[in-house]
Every structure is written in C-alpha cells, then in structure tokens.
C-alpha cells in the first residue's frame, strides 16, 4: 500500500514537472498578445442588427439548428418531437420529420442537402433521407452509451458524433458501423466542429477542456484548458488556425492552434449566464454567442469587446447559426421561436 | 472506479454545473456587507417590524456602481439575482424581477440558496403545500392545488409521512416569535416560487437535461492515469509551435482581408436578400454562373484554397491549365477529392481508374510527383481506402499552389475574367417595391436539382473529349473525362476532321470487345488507320493543334513499321492488364511485359520519366514540351508533309524497326 502510494506520488511529481515544461514551452512562443496585434485595427463600432424574420411552428423548446449548404434552408429540432426543415427566405416549412424519441439534442444537415441527422437522449444518431417522397430513416447509428449532444456530416457517407459518454465517433453511413472512436475526454462531450479543410475537428466537453483531433489517425492532437466549467459550444475561426469556445462559466475564449495557447477571453462582469452556442461571421471578426440570459451577445473577436446584443427571445437562446454565405445569423430559443437577424 | 450504466438512460444523472451561481454568490456576499453593501431599512408590517429590507432602486444603483455598467444592464443583473432566488420581493412575490422603484426586497437566507448539493425534491414540496393547507384551508393557488393533487396521487404511499412532517413543522413554527415566523414563511414561499414557478413563467432553474458524468466526481489517480498524461504531455512538448505574434498577426490580417466580404460589416451588392427580399445577389453568385461578380473574383486572389473551393474559380483555373498543358494536376486533385468523399462501394474502382489515368507508367495523364511519394502511393494502392492518395494529392496541391497559381494570377485568362466580371449597382427600393418583393418571394431551387444540372453539365463535357490532353492509346471511360478537366467552353480544337467522336460505334479491335466501353481514341485510331493512306493533309486541322497532328502522324509511322493494330493496341493499352483476367488488385505494369519497345517511344512523347532524381526541377517536362512545340510549329509551317514527330528530334536512339 505504501509502495503503491510512493509510486503514485513519484508519477504525480513527474507529471507536474512535465506540466511546468509545457507551460514554459508555451510561454516561450508567447511573444505577442492579441491586444497588441489588434491595436491598430479600426473598431467595428456598435453592431445593431434587426430581427428580420421570426419562424414560428415549433411547440416546445428548440434545442438545435443547422443551416444547409445553400444558405437558404435550415433544419431545427425541438423537444416536441419534430424536425422542421425551413426555407428561411419564404418562411415555409418544407419538411416535417417526426422523431421516434422526442428528447432531441442535436441536428445536422448534410452538405449535399439529401440527408438530415438528429440525436439526443435515445443515445442514437438517426439519419433521415429527406429527398424521398416522405422522410425515411436511412440509418440508426446505435453504439453510444450516452446521449448524443452533437453531430456533423462530412459527406453523404460519413458522420461525426459527440456523446455524453465522453467519446466522439466517426461513422460510416453505408455500413452503419463506427469507423473511429475518439476517446480522451473525461466529461460529457457537448459539442464539436469540423475544420474548414475537414482533416481535423475540435470538441468541447464538460471537463472544461477543448481538444483537437486528427480524423485519420483517431488521436487527440492538442488540448486546451482555461475554462472553469462545461464547454457548451465550440467553433473554428474561418482560417482554420484558431478556435473559439463558449462555456457555462459565462465566458468565451479563443485559442490559437499553432502557438497552442489561449489568445483572448470574452467575458464581462455584468454577464452572468452561461454560453449555450456560438457562431462566427464570415470574416471571423464577429462572434455571435447565445446566452442563458435570453440574449445573443455580439463580440468583436479582435478587440474582445461586446459590440451588440440581439434581444427578443423570451427564454434561453439554445442555438445560433450563421449560414455559409454569411448573410445573417439565426438564433433558436427555448421559447420555441427561431429568429433571423442582420 | 466509476461504473458506467450501459442501459439506455432516458434521464441522465447529474445536474449541470451552474458556474454562474458562484459568480452570483460572490456578488451577493458583497451586497450584504454592512459597510459597503446595499443600504437596508426596517420594514413595518402592521405591528411587527422586519429588519433588513432593501429597495429595488438601491439595488440597481449599487450594482451599476459596483459592476461599472449602465442602469439597464444593472437592472438585468438584478433581475437575474431575483430569478435565481438570491433576493426575493416582499410585495408581488410571484414576479421575480427587480423594479426600479421603492418596492422592497430581502436577501434570501443561505439555507435556501440554489446550490447544487441537493436537488429540489418533490417530497419537500409536498410537505410545504400540506403545511400551507393546514394553516389555512383554501389558501393554495390554482396551480398549487393542481400540483398538490398530482403529488397526492403520485406519492400516495408516503402521504402519511408527508402529513406528519407538515404537522410537525407547523407546530414548530408556531412556537417561534412572530417576526421570525413571518420572515421564514416569506423565505420559504420565495424559495418555492423559484423552484416550482407558476405556469407561464420562465424559471431560471430550468437547466435542460442532466449530464451523464458526475461533474463532482474525481477520476481515481491510478498509475495508468498519470502515464497517459505524461505520454500526451511529452508528445505535446515536442510538437513545433509557431510564435503567437505570427499566428495572431495572421488572424488579424484574415479579418482585415475578408472584412469587405463580410455581409455584417460591409454592404453586399446589389442588396442583401434578407433585407430587401430580392434574390439577385443569390442568382448572381450561383456556383456555376457564367460571369462571376467582381467580389467573387477578388476572393480567388486571396488564397489558392479559395480559388479551388469555388466551382467557377476552378473552371477558370482549369481553362488556364489547359492552355498550359498541365490540366492533369487539377484533374488528379479533383479525382482525389471524389475518391475521398464518395461512396465506399465505388472506391476501389475509382482508385484503379485514377491509378491508370494518372499514376501508372505510360498513363495518359501522368502527374509529376517525386519518387518517394510515388512509391508510397503505389504501395498503399494495393489496399485502397478513402485516403490512399493523400500524400500525392498534397504534393500536387502544393505544386499547383506554388507554381501554377501565381502564373494564373498573371495570365490573360484571369485578366479577361476579371475584366468581364460584373459589379452590380446597389438596389434602391421604395417601400412599395419592398412590399412587392416580399410578396414575390419564391422557394429556391432544390439542391438535388442543382446537382442534377451539375451532373448534366459534366456529362456534356465528357462528350467533348479534348484529345490534346488524352493519350489515344488508352480508353477514356466516360467519367474519366470529368477528371481530365475538359473545359466547358466549346473547344475550338475539336476538329471537324474527326467526326467519329460523336457516335459510339463499336470497334472491331479485340480490346474493345473485351471492354464494356469503347474508347474514343481507339475509334480515332481506327479511323486514322483507315484513312492513313489517304490524304495526310486532311489530317492536319486548319490552323490547328500541332500536337494532334503529331499524334496522328506518329501512329501512322508505327503502323508502317509493321505492327498490326490489334497486337499493338493489345500491348499498348494499359486496360489490357485487367482484360487479361488478373485479380482485382491493382498491379503496376511490370518490367516483364511484352510491350517494352513501343511504350518507351510513347514514353518520351508522354513525358514519362520514372527515373527522375527527386531533386529535379518541378516542371522539366513542360518546358521541354514547349520547346518541342515551338520547334515543331516553326517547321510545321512549311508544309503538311514536313510535320515532324516529336521523338524523332528528341531521341533518335529510340527508333525501332
């Protein structure tokens, strides 16, 4: 018993030593701060966006939304057990997919526009073909032992899922089997995002860590710490070299992948609600973060200041999304409405 | 050791950490500080006085001062504190907001703070409701009555316990002094308003769904745990890092470059469809539009990735590469992408096609990658999978990026596109017109329809096979033409003297009998052969492509050398390997094939130099080809009969009898 304890203590000491080494390595490359680099950049001023459209149709809390690749259609999931596919421009509901399990937590649109995936407390990711006469279940991906918190398509044949069982998984849609399982988190994985070049992806979890994974190798490449609570939302900066995370500790942070450290934090003493979702504008200059205080706040990425707010929802903003062409931002809320702003 | 519950769990276990509670608690403690906190006053309530009541306006003022924010934000923060249950209103207790006037509030006792240590139990709520019922019958509100009835039904088995507890608490409360009793009743009432809100109100305690992993549990520190951390940290330390100033600088630059392309920061022309309900912007920016907008063309100049990811940009680039005779690079890149994202069923077939078209010795569109990459690729092609061509694709991508991209930017093709690009004027709609636009909104084209149009276009391109880019000795399969990057502009090179391209007549060639698709080039060769003794001059397209005529001439020369077409085709066509009934595994052309002599000659023409040392120039072939062409062209101008075969001048020693 004592020998074991001694061994563990020795290992702990070694670990701590390595930790200081990695901190030193990070510090060594930290020769410039964002405030210094962005000092000369002009401020964006006050960003005032108006609510252009309100999409009504859901009957319960909306948990997730995802824009289609054509920047006009969008799919949203609500706990009334329905997935609705909207043509946001006309406001029409195109397809209503009834779900077997009403406890849906995430939804995704395939880049081709043929498929839609959803998952939640049923621990499964169900993929639907929405181009058939009536939406048909294509596959039920069932191997997770925890709820499905997020899913994203790579193509019509592969999909990535993040689950409450602390793993992320890459599935082959044609066989319906898992191709790669990414294990390293020690808390529920809450969200994931694909890199623009689709070689890597990032995941945020309840252990307050964000991890970068290589899709081919199946290993965790980098880990970013700094948050003090669950990371609920994560996204890539458009150039693929930085990530932005949003957490229950009421702050967002940007981490740089190449220098392996936190670059800037977005917090405000008067903001005391967790971040539920976030999305970046096309140039990366604006971050739209949805909070528990019923608003979506807009941050200036480079300066770290709040530059605007989207108020109008009567309950928590649960999901935020900017389409590919960057023309607007859509927020979905527990008040069952989706609002488009620009 | 954490035991994972493998059963399907429709209600997971643990409440999410509400870190914002800790922040709120900190502020609360400061607020209650007797010296620097909010000023409190006693409240008169009929005969009793309740100490420590605070007014709404005082709270807001204190918060605004402490957090350095304006009154509206301070009010929001205050309302949040009330909603979470840290402060409760004395009047109008059901509305959990801060009113910026003299309405009174009190701090909630820490016993009733919304900590996460114990979840709010229905049992306690039942006890509370029962207690209130005992105190005064009929005092419960409608929703409370409904809850009471529901709990009574649900907890019938322990109802005796609940009633007993309620009576006990009621009796104990009566023994307290009046002010204490009143205070406690208020606190308890406020607690339950927060945790069991009346219908129609939003509860701040609503946190959604439980988490699966206990956030308070610590992972046991076994040696294995530490070893894992150490391995990861060591790998991490060894990874190269870029200086943060460089990386951040790149981010700042990115934002600046794209700022004018960000619809939130700059106006988009002609108008933002979400603002004016007019879809001109989207129509002008369709994926395969004929004339792009200036903004779009500008984006192509930002990076090579931007150019390739835009289908219209890629088309333009393809046209440029065609003029430079290096279209095979882009074609290879596109086919790699197709392999990566396509269905698994077609993968090995696609990999084989790619190998035969781009990588094999003697391949018609051989790409120039260094020896090592070629070796790795050929080896992994034995077991084809989705990412088998990654190394080669990256190499070609970098090649195009470092070399062709720069030249494309300076080329007449690009300049022409830039000149023709549209810059639409800004829309200026009147209110009436905006209303009209809103009425005329139409659904978009379905992505499926768009893809079908794309496929039709590709098929059309496949029909116009551009033989300057293809070897006539191999069989281009229909989808191959897609990879060969045939331009969608009606090719001026599609010579009228080669009409047989249009129809798909079966060839008598023994190869085509074995294969399911006939090759355009074989047909051409047959036709050539048929007319070989005829009019050689007719073979030369007027003002046309010198290399085409060279091909025709060289074939005739080969034929004259006594090879019969069938055996020659049999030996020259790479497809014959599969026709020979080999296994499904892709086999590189071995050295023991009988087709040694002719391929070598063709090798020179088709620029295959397998033994190039890796440090050789990037485009040795191109420049040589250009030299050949200029030389041939200069000589070709003399007369049809004097067209020179390329390898005649280049490698006299390769002539075989």
Automatic annotation (TrEMBL), chain A:
GO biological process, one term: signal transduction
Entries under InterPro entries matching the protein: G-protein_beta_1-5 (IPR016346), WD40/YVTN_repeat-like_dom_sf (IPR015943), WD40_G-protein_beta-like (IPR001632), WD40_PAC1 (IPR020472), WD40_repeat_CS (IPR019775), WD40_repeat_dom_sf (IPR036322), WD40_rpt (IPR001680)
CDD domains tied to this protein: WD40
Keywords: Coiled coil, Repeat, Transducer, WD repeat
Keyword Protein transport: no
Coiled-coil annotated spans: 1-28
Record keyword Coiled coil present: yes
Xref: PROSITE patterns: WD_REPEATS_1, WD_REPEATS_2, WD_REPEATS_REGION
WD repeat start and end residues: 55-96, 141-181, 182-223, 224-265, 310-342
Family: Belongs to the WD repeat G protein beta family.
Protein name: Guanine nucleotide-binding protein G(I)/G(S)/G(T) subunit beta-3
From TrEMBL, chain B:
Superkingdom: Eukaryota
Record's bilayer topology term: Peripheral membrane protein
Keyword Membrane annotated: yes
PROSITE patterns: DEP (PS50186), RGS (PS50132)
Record flagged with keyword Metal-binding: no
A single MF term (Gene Ontology): GTPase activator activity
GO biological-process terms attached to the record: G protein-coupled receptor signaling pathway; intracellular signal transduction; negative regulation of signal transduction; regulation of G protein-coupled receptor signaling pathway; visual perception
Keywords for the protein's UniProt record, in alphabetical order: Membrane, Sensory transduction, Signal transduction inhibitor, Vision
CDD domains reported in the protein's UniProt record: DEP_RGS7-like, GGL, RGS_RGS9
Primary location recorded for the protein, binned into one broad class: membrane
GO cellular component: cytoplasm; neuron projection; plasma membrane
Sequence ranges assigned to domain RGS in this UniProt record: 303-418
Protein location: Membrane
Disordered: annotated span: 517-544
Cited PANTHER family: LP21163P, REGULATOR OF G-PROTEIN SIGNALING 9
The protein's name: Regulator of G-protein signaling 9
